[in-house]
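Attaching the record inline, Q. Sequence:
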Amino acid sequence: MRRAGVGVQREVMTPLRVLVRSGFLIGILLLGDLAGYLWKTVGANIGLGLLVFLVLGVVAGALGLLDGRRHAIRGVLVMWLVVSAVVGLFAAASVSVGAWLLGGGFTMSVLASDLVLLAPFMACLVAVPALIGAALGEATSAGRVARAPRPTT
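Structure, as predicted:
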């Protein structure tokens, strides 16, 4: 019989953990949108967009690394897949909502296009570094519980 807390890793997939990580990454997206709105330039501000993508990927990878070191890898992977889906859906919806708030009007075809093209891109932009970070964190964690070998019969 196992004692409570000995050799058992906690479940990591909780709504609060998803909400905190999603909110943090969405905050990065909103700061990028705000910076793009405040620094009015002629044409697209590609440099700012690439910087936001870089920061988003680095932060997701770092948080995934920390999660991989602290929790069971299966729960971490599921949690980061959910977080990446939330961030991708938010990014797609924020384009249409932002255009509506700035007086451009809401267009269902733009929302549909963003859900098909932008949402998977942003989800991958978050998921890939986070999952790599989680795998590296799990592989390098010193505090992992040693498993007993299976008995052979």
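Confidence is low (pLDDT under 50) at residues 1-8. The two ends are 22 Å apart (CA to CA).

More tomorrow.
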